[in-house]
Design brief:
Double Stranded RNA Binding Domain; translation release factor activity; ribosome binding; about 140 residues; 3-stranded antiparallel beta sheet; Pep_chain_release_fac_I_sf; alpha+beta; two-stranded antiparallel sheet; elongated
Length: about 140
């Protein structure tokens, strides 16, 4: 079981790990060992995740979220299978922690009177500068 927060924990049956051959460092050893990890988390079917967390997780996951609601995390950073497995699990925990944080509601603000006046003055100066770029009379 993976403990994410005080209220969220993921059961082992919700996670599936598959070990595949990795590219990158390792020399000839990389051709015969499966050190890369593909971690699958059935997020849509998970009874431990509240619906708002699932929605935020789907948005944060982006392309890692499949159409059937599975979150796929791949890791082939190191040459060691166990280390890659730990990194993938840490990434999953971090992603779910981010999704569990409720975003702050934005309070819309209005521009101050001074900022409006500065903007209009800058527009007027820019307009006058461009007005002087016209054709000069008498030459041609």
């Amino acid at each position: 079981m993976l403990r994410i927060t005080d209220t969220i924990a993921i059961e082992d049956w919700e996670l599936t790990e598959q070990f595949v051959r990795a590219s990158g460092p390792g020399g000839q050893n990389v051709n015969k060992t499966s050190s890369a990890v593909e971690l699958r988390f059935e997020a849509e079917r998970s009874p431990n995740l509240p619906d708002p967390v699932k929605r935020r997780l789907r948005r944060l996951a982006g392309r890692r979220w499949t159409t059937d609601g599975t979150l796929i995390i791949q890791c082939d950073e190191t040459r060691h299978q166990a280390r890659n497995r730990d990194i993938a699990r840490d990434r999953l925990i971090e992603l779910i922690r981010k999704a569990s944080e409720k975003p702050k509601k934005r309070i819309p603000t209005r521009p101050t009177l001074g900022s409006k006046k500065r903007r209009l003055k800058a527009k007027k100066v820019q307009g006058e500068k461009k007005a002087l770029r016209g054709k000069v009379e008498g030459e041609g």
